[in-house]
Amino acid sequence: MKIVVGVKQVPETDSVKIDPKTNNLVRSGIQGIINPFDKNAIEAALQLRDQAGGEVILLSMGPDSYTTSLRDGMAMGADSAVLVSSRAFGGADTLATGYTLAKAIEAIGDVDLVLFGRQSVDADTGQVGPIVAELLNFPQVTFAETVSLESENTIVAKRQLDSAVQDVQVTLPAVVTVRKELNTPRYETPLNIKESFEKQITTWTENDLNIDFSKIGQSGSPTKVTKVYEPTKELKQTTVLPVDPTEAVSELLSKLD
Amino acid sequence: MDNNEIWVYVEITGSKIEPTSLQLITKAKQIADGRKVVAVVPETSKTQAETIIKEYGPDRIESLVDDQFDEATDEELADALFQVTDQNRPNSLLFPATILGRSIAPRLQAKLQTGLTGDSLDIYYENDLLVQVKPTYGDNVMCDIVCPDKRPQMVTVRPNTFRAKKVNNSQTEIVQAEFTFHKNKNSKIIATDPIINSSSKLDDAKVVIALGRGAYSEKNIKLAQKLAAKLGGMVGVSRPLTDEAEFSHDDQIGIGGASLSADLLINLGISGAVQYTVGIKNAKKIVSVNIDKDAPIFDDSDFAYVGDVTDFLNALMNQVK
Predict the structure, then answer these.
(1) Are A105 and A2 in contact (CB under 8 A)?
(2) B143 interaction partners in chain A (CB closer than 8 Å)
């Protein structure tokens, strides 16, 4: 089984700065980590590989510094990694990102399963998985909380909707996006960390892929960020309750009624 | 070819109409400024959702009827919606940011090759551009996003961000949309089990006791659960606590989790980052307990108690009848 896992590197801190001139994220000086949900996707891929054999390939789009996350993922046990990296991909929104990743998956070739974390913790949209699935014409299961290989080319996954749980059966190749509840990602072992430095990270630019240049980067992105700002808050009239908890609760209960 | 209409996807699971879709019809009417508001509804012949949808006053309902929608996959839903939106493209297309909405909207986006903003908190028009407001990159940053050249302008909007309002004497035209249900041979829903205990319950709970990092202890969790049971409410958490064994994503309030509509919310040991506070802005009365008198959560609160969470919970347990 050939499994590709989409990996995004996200800022470690929540207080990221935005460049007011370009409206882009200022990445310099901030430590990058693997998007935590993507670790669940890697774990799911490793378990399926252990069960069915095959290989796990990590795929990311971003600057060279993203190799940090790819090394981490390989230290968990992934076999190799592909980084799609070039200035031409810069400023991509979800559609341009999904297109680029779909083209990279085509270039990897004969992929059976593509896994993603349910969403990234920074931009939080969870759109890229379904976009990749659509562009590759693969079926999808989103927000999976169980994933099992039913036969050589069938996966059954459970997904929780707002008022029902569905069991979805998909024929491979397919895209599955996973929830944190699916599993507990394994720790990197010293041996795996050592081995991760011997594993290969292949870097591709736009010239290595069979792509339409008008569909990548900023020019391939239909959405534009027009403004970045701090939200204004309407301050409430706050009643400060007395220090003594018993008095505080009495006052609260009398005023709530 | 474009038209100037605002389309709202009406999500139906089982026979239940997703409330967010109705909220979006109301919001679309408020911002329409002469544009027609159209509800697009994939449904079975049994559902007859038009009767309910009409009460919210869209100008038109485009009903896509096929009994296979009962257990339609994401691929089949996206395909059906593509058939009715591709030729005569609406100005905007709004989806609820539910699990289903967030799964089919990006597939449809890729088919239509247009822009989609996920999990938006506000929408308004500037001329013909739909400005989509979305918090991003952690604390205290909001973005305005537009899609200048492609149509429709697609967006998913968080549940309970707007209130649905019924209207009297609405003149709603009901149209049977022309489309063909294309069965996808590579995916299939093989079982559907209704659930009672889900995050949507947290969205709709009348009383919510919310725990944050500053209140995380076995004792406080037990007390909070007892109090919630006593008040007929539910326990929710801020994002950091979803990493703990006792809680999961379903318990999360704020971005990526529930948007509350509670009458009473008690925040315990929650500092009040914007990812959290966007999920509580529609709660009616907010009580917050924090050891730090400068915690930002107090700015969003009607009542503030600066002190120990356990002491406050014990006092509440003693005095609440």
Answers:
(1) no
(2) 225, 227-228
Query: How far is B195 from A162, CA to CA, in rounded Å?
Result: 8
Q: Please list every residue in chain B whose beta carbon sits closer than 8 Å to the beta carbon of residue A98.
A: 106, 110
- Split into its structural domains, chain B has a count of 2
Contact A131 B200 (CB under 8 A): no
Closest-CA residue of B relative to A179 is B249
Return the pLDDT at B196. Answer: 60
Contact: A245, B305; criterion CB under 8 Å: yes
From chain A, the residues in CB contact with B142 under 8 A are 228-231
The arithmetic mean of pLDDT across residues B131-156, rounded, is: 88
User: How far is the C-alpha of B252 from the C-alpha of B200, rounded, in Å?
Assistant: 11
Bond into A173 cis (ω within 30): yes
Domain contains B82: yes
Question: Which positions in chain B touch A221 (Cβ < 8 Å)?
Answer: 115
- The pLDDT tens digits for B177-214 are 999 999 999 999 999 988 765 445 788 899 999 999 99
Closest C-alpha among B318, B285, B291, B321 to residue B303: B285
Q: Has residue B193 been placed in a domain?
A: no
* Feature table: binding site of B for FAD: 213, 238-239, 290
| Helix B99-112 vs helix A94-108: crossing angle, to nearest 10 | 80
Domain that holds residue B211: 198-319
Which pTM was predicted? 0.83
Identify whether B1 is part of a domain: no
Structure tokens belonging to residue B249: 């994503």
Q: How far apart are CA B23 and CA B160, in angstroms?
A: 7
Interface contact flag, A161 B145, Cβ < 8 Å: no
Rounded to a whole number of angstroms, the distance from the CA of A105 to the nearest CA of chain B is 16
Determine the residue of chain A that is closest to B310 in CA distance. Answer: A245
User: Does B192 map to a domain?
Assistant: no
Best of A40, A93, A134 to substitute, by most chain B Cβ atoms within 10 angstroms, is A134
> Under a CB-based contact definition with an 8 Å cutoff, are residues A133 and B264 in contact?
no
Q: What angle do CA B254, B163, B55 make, to 5 degrees?
A: 140
For residue B42, pLDDT over 90 is answered with yes
- Name which of A15, A160, A171 is nearest B139 (Cβ-Cβ): A15
The complex's ipTM works out to 0.89
Q: How far apart are the first and last CA of chain A?
A: 62
What are φ and ψ of residue B50, in 5° steps?
Answer: -55, -40
CA distance B51 to chain A (A): 21
Rounded CA gap, A134 and B14, in Å?
25
Regarding whether B124 and B224 lie in a shared domain, the answer is: no
- Count of domains for chain A: 1
